[in-house]
Amino acid sequence: MAKCQRQDFWLGGLYAPCGSFLLRSDAGVRRHRARSGQTRLRKNMAWGHCPARASKFHLSKRAHEMSTNIQTNSQAKSRTDKEIIIYQHSELIYWWVVWLYGFFCAGLTYWQGVPVGAVLPSSAVLDKISKDVSIYPDTLLGVSFVLLVLCLAVFTNLKSRVINSLAVLLALVIAAGILTLGFDHEILKPFQLIIYITWELYLLFSLVLFGIWTLFIFVFEKRTYYYFRPHAFGIVTIGQGQQNFVFQALATAKSYPPLVNRLLGLWLTGDLKVVCTPGGQYEVKSVWRVREKENQISELQA
Fold first, then answer.
1. pLDDT, mean of residues 201-208
2. Residue 285 zone, left/alpha/beta (φ > 0; ψ -120 to 50; rest)
3. Distance between CA atoms of residues 256 and 286, nearest Å
């Protein structure tokens, strides 16, 4: 049937105005409504207004926000729980080269040593012990070991960079002169040293020094340490208590020791100056891997 209504006239999907009264068929009305619904559906899907797509879009957005919040919270928690610890060492940390060279001299003397009687002039005392005691035939080994101990004792205790540099320069000049003239030159004869050390003495000296070095570096000097946390700094002495500071600002600055100490520290050891407000100023001596520690503290406070 056809109904006469006052609106647009559709017949077979064709639009035709019909004066004041428009005629439209039922079949055309149904087709028009179906097409209009499909058009709206396509537009809604294109703009993300489809119910199914909208629900998926909002769920994925919500899941992304939750994962972002979880990651932020976990990062903040790990940053809060993170702690950096540094230790202060004494000048004994540089003495590793002495016991290491002592072990080398002991092994060299043991394997290539000769009886004392074959090197030193004969005497009543030497004749009794010449069969049981062996020494290295070249006196340079004993002289180098003694000079290493003396030079290390001097250089590690010279705090002035100028004096330390002058001492290093003087030592290099003397060494170059000896190598150029030769050990047997007449000028050097009044200053020649004859030092022979048995492998047992090398070994005993190195073992004692190694034991003291290990005990201080890994036990005694570990009793006091400095810790850094976000907006917190403290000094802990095991068995004596600790000092804690909550600061508003923290600044660190590294400085390297004189040339000889830096060389013996394998270019990794240095002093770390810490200034916290409030809290004061502190200087941590001979920090191992000082550059890495300073970078970690800066990243922790960022």
1. 96
2. beta
3. 9
Q: Cite the DSSP H helix spans in 190-258.
A: 199-218
Closest to 134 in 3D by CA, of 152, 164, 109: 109
What are the φ/ψ torsions at residue 256 (nearest 5 degrees)? Answer: -100, 150
- What is the C-alpha to C-alpha distance for residues 250 and 196, in angstroms, rounded to an integer? 55
* Type of residue found at 132: D
pLDDT given at position 284: 92
pLDDT for 92-144, tens place per residue?
Answer: 999 999 999 999 999 999 999 887 766 666 555 555 655 567 888 888 899 88
The phi, psi pair for 76, rounded to 5°, reads -65, -35
Q: For residue 110, how many other CB atoms are within 10 A of its CB?
A: 15
* pTM for the structure as a whole: 0.67
Give the Cα-Cα-Cα angle 102, 198, 117 (nearest 5 degrees): 150
